[in-house]
Design a protein that fits this description.
With 219 residues, this protein is α/β, with parallel strands linked by helices. Helices cover 43% and strands 17% of the residues. The protein has helices at residues 11-27, 37-42, 63-66, 86-97, 113-124, 132-148, 154-172, 174-181; strands spanning 51-56, 74-79, 103-109, 186-193, 198-205, 213-214. It has a six-stranded mixed β-sheet with strand order 2-1-3-4-5-6, sandwiched between helices. Helix 3 links the parallel strand 1 and strand 2 (74-79). Helix 7 packs across helix 8 (174-181). The longest helix has 19 residues, at 154-172. The relative contact order is 0.15. It comes from Arthrobacter gengyunqii. This is carbonic anhydrase. It catalyses: hydrogencarbonate + H(+) = CO2 + H2O. Its cofactor is Zn(2+). It is an enzyme of class 4 (lyase).
Length: 219
């Protein structure tokens, strides 16, 4: 069966597909689509993902599983605490400019170790060693923003960090910002609850109708 190209799918349709897949996962009714030999063979020479999922590296946050996806459905990028760096931005810009993906999902989750480490640093003033320090420094602004809003629990800070990360993506990349302005791509923040398996849309920018989403970057 021929599938529509990613560019033919709107940001709203892409999110609807992810939302429906997550609902199946929560209900224990995953269909495991696009995981057979025919699908594998069809992707040898090209890929056509309909979403980018930029999430935390946590082992409990396997994007293709929680959204019930298969081979070639999602372009996945993962760092601890979904921390942005140049490699992440380059990968995201590639997905938008070359692959034409209509939706970027920033995927955070409760009980995040990286956010917990940043909160601990803010609370105690003690900075971790090695390259973990770099992660904590990049997450700390989100922790401070949460505290300014009266949020003191780690899971509330995770949601704030997810929102802040989605905003920073649009702020940091003129390529992504332009795609959002033109309606070709939306950027959304999604928070995943480990116990329930549910992924909730908490923020975003672009052509997607939802109370948490604004229609253009940073408007």
């Amino acid at each position: 069966m021929n599938e529509p190209s990613a560019s033919a799918i709107t940001p709203a349709q892409a999110w609807q597909t992810l939302h429906e897949g997550n609902a199946r996962f929560v209900a224990g009714e995953s269909s495991h689509p696009n995981q057979d030999a025919n699908r594998r063979s069809s992707l040898v020479h090209e890929q056509n993902p309909f979403a980018v999922i930029f999430g935390c590296s946590d082992s409990r946050l396997a994007a293709e599983i929680i959204f019930d996806l298969g081979l070639g459905d999602a372009f996945v990028i993962r760092t601890a605490g979904q921390v942005i760096d140049d490699a992440v931005l380059g990968s995201l810009e590639y997905s938008v400019a070359v692959l034409g993906v209509p939706l970027i999902v920033v995927l955070g989750h409760d009980s995040c170790g990286a956010v917990t480490a940043a909160k601990r640093t803010v609370d105690t003033g003690e900075m971790p060693g090695g390259h973990i320090r770099n992660l904590v420094e990049r997450i700390t602004p989100s922790v401070l923003a949460a505290q300014r809003n009266g949020l003191t629990e780690v899971n509330d800070m995770v949601v704030e960090h997810t929102k802040q990360t989605a905003e920073r993506l649009v702020e940091s990349s003129s390529m992504i910002s332009a795609a959002v302005e033109e309606g070709r791509t939306a950027v959304i923040g999604v928070s995943y609850r480990l116990a329930e398996g549910a992924a909730d849309l908490v923020s975003g920018y672009g052509a997607l109708s939802h109370p948490a989403v604004v229609r253009s970057p940073l408007s």
